[in-house]
Amino acid sequence: MRRVETIHPQPLSRRLRPLAYALVAVVGLVLALTWVALQTQVTLAGFLNGESLWAKAQKQAVIDLDGYAAHGRPDDLAAYRRNFAVLMADRSSRDAIASRRYEQAVVEDGFARGGVIPEAIPGMVFIFRYFDGMPYVREAIAEWRSVDASLAEIDEIAGRLERAYASGTPSPSLLDEERGRIAALNTYVEPRTKAFSLYIANGASWLGRVLFFTVLAVATLASLLWLRMAQRILVGIRGTEERYSLLFDSAADAIFMVDEETGRILDANHRAAAWAGRPSGELIGIQLASLFVDVSPHAGAGTLRNGDGSVRPVETQSSLVVWGSRRVSQAIVRDISDRVAMEQERRIASEALASIAEGVIIADADRRVTSANAAHTKLTGIPVQTLRRTRFDATRTLPDGRPLPQTLWDDIDAGDNWLGEVESRRADGTTYPELMSISTIRDSEGRPQHYVAVVSDITARKADRQRLQHMATHDPLTGLVTRSEFERRCAEAITRAAHERGAVAVLFVDLDAFKVINDSYSHATGDALLMRVAERIRAQLAPHDVAGRIGGDEFTVLIADLRSREEALAVAEAVLAALAKPFDLGDYELFVSASIGIAGYPLDGNDAVTLIANADAAMYVAKTEERNALRLYTPKMHADARRRLKLASELRQALVRKEFTLAFQPSVEMKTGRIVAVEALIRWRHPERGNVPPDEFIPIAESLGLIRQIDQWVLETACAQLKHWDDAKLPPLRMAVNVSASSFGHPDFLPGVSQALLETGIAPQRLLIELTESAILRLGEDTERSMQSLHSLGVGVAIDDFGTGYSSLAYLKLPAVAYLKIDRSFVTGLPANGNDVAITEAMVAIARSLDLHTIAEGIETEAQHEFLLRAGCQEGQGFLYSRPLPPDEIERLLAPHKASGAKKLSLVPPRRA
């Protein structure tokens, strides 16, 4: 609390004092102007007096000279000389002033000799000097100057007369002539003398009027200004009183005017009345102390009773003023409820600051520590006393060891908060990563007053982040880098090679038949195999080489710092050799192979994506041509890849455009030569490419997921064709349809078969589903269930290409398996190749023992036919009997000959014996 004693003088006298000063100034100004007018009048009087003397002197000089001419008396000449001297004195002073080069005393002496009033002489000099162009004065001076020559001539006449009288008595004729000239000059001068007198008189009258109106105008203006000032001061006094009353009543604080001697309230504002809960009039006269609780109203912080009985914390500040002869205390009572609440919040915040887990540092504007909480001491081991007055960035650097840059502080000073990672030093000298946030507390002018830093140890968090970053950039199964990380590192290697004029090679490694292994055993086994493959690939690489997994069984290898891509062949061959060795996976020993494509910078591409794509194209060629091989990329490979992409796009439209057709290859009973079945084979008649081979578009259809739609179309079309032949009264045939593994394992396959049989009315026994050995292997556990469903439906299944894949006799026991097809690879060497003979006879024997119907594929010679017939094979297919034929050709083969009733057919070509 602060009590201020001040004695305030009466404010009205101070406010009116400028008005009094202004009035004195106005009176002084009027008096000054009046004095100027008087001086001007004195000057004009001097002008008139001088004019009168000058006119008299001029007249008298003429009279005296004329008398001297008539009588020759010396007294007349002397009188003339005196009067003429007056004229010359005024004239010399006038000309000296006009030349602007004169001495004030000489000029004043000349006017004095001319008889001018001494008091008027300074004024006359001033007017001749500065106002010779004033109205009337200008004309008077002009008239005055106009007689200068005449006066000079008069003086010459006086000199001639004086010389004439001095030499004797002049002749009458001379005297008459001179007197006549004197009279003529006087006639010229006299009216100008009168005009001069008139101009001087008019000038005096004009100047008097000007001075009068000037004094009147100035006095009027000064009076108006004074009245205006008086009005403003009075308005200001009234406004001050009103403002004081407004401020007094509208103040946010309670104000009491208290008699210093008695302590009673003399006046109170509205806020005081509102807090006290009673009108202002009721407060007047009571003791101010009665409104407070246990504390003097002059004691600073205290408690004020509210009108409703509650209390509020307040702070009182009083000052002494003088009202007339009374000493009055002005008590200003301020509500400090918010301050008390803020102090409580600050105390709570201080306790919270001390208890939070993060370290908090508070520093001054010079970044010197003023305080820190216990958590910071626990983090760093540095006591607050040791840390105080040291710069808090002295123990912290950027993660790379550089000090915190000045730009960081400039940004913070500009108003930004900073959040980032720093390296902090503990008391024992060890360091740890720390996340630090820096903000500022600013003063009223917006300048940083304090810095507040919140820090936390992020050692564990950083380790988790690095672990997550590794997981984001590495395959979780194999630990190899992901596709995006591989592309990033490849791009860096390309940039480095471009600067060093080197080369980079990318190897695209794809496992052969991995899906068969994955589906045949289990996904866990497949994952274990992929991990072992990744280990073997890594083992063949140098430390700076990069291996990645970008697909299920697709791997990439980045080999940098090469002189040419051909140097990567050694690494690729080492990888092939390593992957060719058996993999011991506990319960299984598996053999796999891989196909590798190689593309290099700068020959095959300038960016990572292009190199990977070109290496993929080279891998595709290696896989399709040979497998377990490697190929270097050539532009033709990419053209083939683009062709496949275009073919894939066109394949999607082939079904819609009805570009697919079916050809049927007969299956002949070996003993009789009778056609007992046909196999439906799909053909694609491309509008531009012509006939596209099935082995070209079927793999693409499988990769695009279109194979199921194609298989369903083949099934429905084949059943419809079989019904058409039945309607044509042709001999009944069995229809064989090839089905892919994806179609056979699809939930909609069996309903599709049932729907096709129902719509065409074909007996289920006449439909044969052909599945390859590899397709059955891919179906895995679902195979037996699907076979059982087909068996219940009455549809038989033929195992195609038996013996070429992962052969298992268990397949032959599956329900619905009724046919076994011997692959053409075993038939081609018959009967000369002993191995093919043994294998074929064994398969026929197995089929016979299991009551399976055998069908041999690819029979092209009579020797093959005869051998298979003797071995016990029941049916055969091949070019010996017929190539795949369109439906109408099949109809001609099956139609009975009109000339003979024999139903055994003789098929040509080739010719049969």
Defining traits:
single chain; 913 residues; 8-stranded mixed beta barrel; 30 helices; 52% helix; elongated
Q: What does it look like?
A:
The chain is an alpha/beta fold. Helix content is 52%, strand content 19%. The chain is built from 30 helices and 28 strands. Helix 6 packs antiparallel against helix 7, helix 16 crosses helix 25 and helix 20 (635-654) packs across helix 21. The longest helix is centred in the N-terminal third of the chain and has 79 residues, at 172-250. It starts with a strand and ends in a 19-residue tail after the last helix.
Brief summary of the model shown:
The protein has 913 residues and is α/β, with parallel strands linked by helices. Helices cover 52% and strands 19% of the residues. Helix 2 runs antiparallel to helix 3 (104-113), helix 6 (148-167) runs antiparallel to helix 7 (172-250) and helix 22 packs parallel to helix 24.
